[in-house]
Amino acid sequence: MVESPRRAAVRAPTLIRLLARLADVDVAPSAPPLSDRLSQWIEWTQSLALSSALDGAALVPGFGAPTPVAAEERECARVRQVLAAAIAGDRAFAATASAKAPARSAAAREDADDFPFFRQRYLALQQTLEAGAGRLRERLRERLTSASPELAKLAEMDAVMERALARRERSLLAAAPALLGRRFERLRHDAQAAAGDAAPAPDDWLAPFRRDMHDALLAELDVRLQPSQGLLAALRARAPD
Predict the structure, then answer these.
(1) Structural domain total, the chain
(2) Does 4 reside within a domain?
(3) Most confidently modeled of 33-42, 124-133, 164-173?
(4) Distance of alpha carbon 190 from alpha carbon 193, whole angstroms
(5) Residue 144 belongs to what domain range?
(6) Which of 10, 103, 131, 196 could disulfide-pair with 27, CB 3.0 to 4.6 Å?
């Protein structure tokens, strides 16, 4: 028996794999080296700033002191918990109808049955994630700056890279709502086709879409927190035994 061809396995971050699956699109199994992509994303003025950061960092009083990281570990965990709770508690994930929300208005139900509502909520949550992850990253850089010359240099490099890649990051993450929109329309179309002349029950197809959207936001949260996890790892390496 001849097996149908399978897609090549996608080796990519969770967010990319999830969005590729939801949008039913192929992702290139290989990609240009990271150094090649960075050369295209970083402007020459930002390259100069990065070069300056690599050349050295100014000495800061207190270098060489032990670097306990328990407080920073707790803060990283707290920020992730708060942002994950903001996602889960958003009104985009409220029950659609009936038993769980009997008093919900018809207008509210209509809003939640159209993708612009979910797109607006996704964009709002993206802003929340960006702000929360950015504050945590800045806090960790401040800790690195006073830990050692090497870590101060790392903090400066991270600040330069954040500024250099911010526009590219926003552009790439802005594609997520559009891909989710494809998933939304496909689920609604399939539900309408299955229902025939009858109107499909929104809960039947909105529930899986909400799960997909929730998973995409959690995956995006992990992506946004990766730089902070790297800075925290650097602090751990400096911490006393």
Answers:
(1) 1
(2) no
(3) 124-133
(4) 5
(5) 65-94+103-238
(6) 10
